[in-house]
Amino acid sequence: xxxxLAFDMGGTFIKYALMNENAExxxxxxxxxxxxxxxxxxxxxxxxGNMYEGQYEGTAxxxxxxxxxxxxxxxxxxxxRFIRNIPMGKHLEECLGVPATIGNDGKCAANAEAWNxxxxxxxxxxxxxxxxxxxxxxxxxxxxxxxxTGGGGELSHLVSDMxxxxxAGSDFGRIIPTIWAGxxxxxxxxxxxxxxxxxxPAELDxxxxxEAYDAGDEDAKAALEEFGRITAAxxxxxxSVLDLQKYAIGGxxxxxxxxxxxxxxxxxxxxxxxxxxxxxxxxxxxCRYGNDANLIGALRFHLDRIG
Length: 307
What we know:
alpha/beta
């Protein structure tokens, strides 16, 4: 059976996995992310490649940024700020000596769920990754929607307060509360909890929030309720345009069943506020894959392109 080396380029770590063509992980690990230069990044990837020399015949990479997966071009690279309009696929092939493909991390997560995960039984769906911002991807007619320039499905930028957004200018601090990233994300949830506690959000995290939640803290419960309601309202907005069958919730905090449960509960309330709506109330579930979704989805992109 053919084997492939997959990478998931995060802001702190680069995860890697030796996988077969059925997405079964044979070995995996992680190394520190190299976000200082392209040379440093390629060197880090090559060191991993050397560990498995001769054991793989292709490389599949999940990474942040606006990408052209078909051409292997990275227009941006998220936290890898040195990536601007470069032929990333070509660099990877020269570095590792095998065919290589790249895929946006959110779209990779959606691709994994579309392949044999939570979206495999529908034609049209969406993955929402609740992380630092709001990641994810959209599947239309069984294919991940890339958009005209590779920017399709960038859910973080869904406007949640049109009036405030239109006057925010270029002030990042004013923009964040007006877009979905400031609400439908792990950071958004923690921020809502911090406001209720009168604390700096930097002093709290998801672990502390759910510890408080499990202890019956009313502020934690109220923060989760608000988070669920605003996330459901965003799903309503997406649904009014795309009329999808299913939404799959991912990201670290989705390991807590309460997260998907509250989004589903609030979606039922939000959608039924307008009984005359011309689109359906979609199914809302938890993603099948956790931290391995980007690796699996990257492999699917590779297999589709290279074969």
